[in-house]
Amino acid sequence: MRSFLVLPVAFSFVFGTVAAQDTLPTPSRWTFSVGPEWGLVAPRTNLWGMRLRAEYDLTRPNSVFGLRLEGGARWSPTQGYFYSDNVATWSGIEQRGDLMLGLSGSLSPLPRARIAPYATMGVFARQLWIHGSSHFSFQPGPFASSSAVATHSSGDIIASLGVGLRSQVAGHSFQLEIRRLYRENGLTFGTRLPF
Known about the structure:
Layout: H1 2-22, E1 30-42, E2 45-57, E3 65-75, E4 79-84, E5 88-107, E6 115-138, E7 144-169, E8 172-181, E9 184-192
Antiparallel strand pairs: 1-2, 1-9, 2-3, 3-5, 4-5, 5-6, 6-7, 7-8, 8-9
């Protein structure tokens, strides 16, 4: 008789626990990130811009191996530069913008830790716009190259490598990531959306 009473209580506990686990909120698959990006245009001369990224997890969030669909945009204000040494002189003005779409993969050895390091790599299609002018000349020497103020556009396929940290703070997920994207470096701060 006792076993008949214990059995329903045990079943209700087991199935109640499973149901409670099923109702726990799953992490959002959307992450938005923003941060500065800088690239070399002349020796010891970097121009900067701001990168905005949206990422959608194609695999289960917080897993060891991750695959994401990623879109991004970069904008930089008009900036001037000048650099001269014993070999040559570089100068110009430039404003850049781009749109990117691609896939990125990640490897996180401790995906559910409170602070989880990860490595990432990706391949992206990029459409780049550059507005500005440039001047280059050897010193001493008669060779010089200049371009008038104009807007140039180009499309290419680029790769990225990066490392980052994901953390859980007060029930929210944040990430800090540094990436090498072709000839530019970027540092972004992001968070998972609540939906």
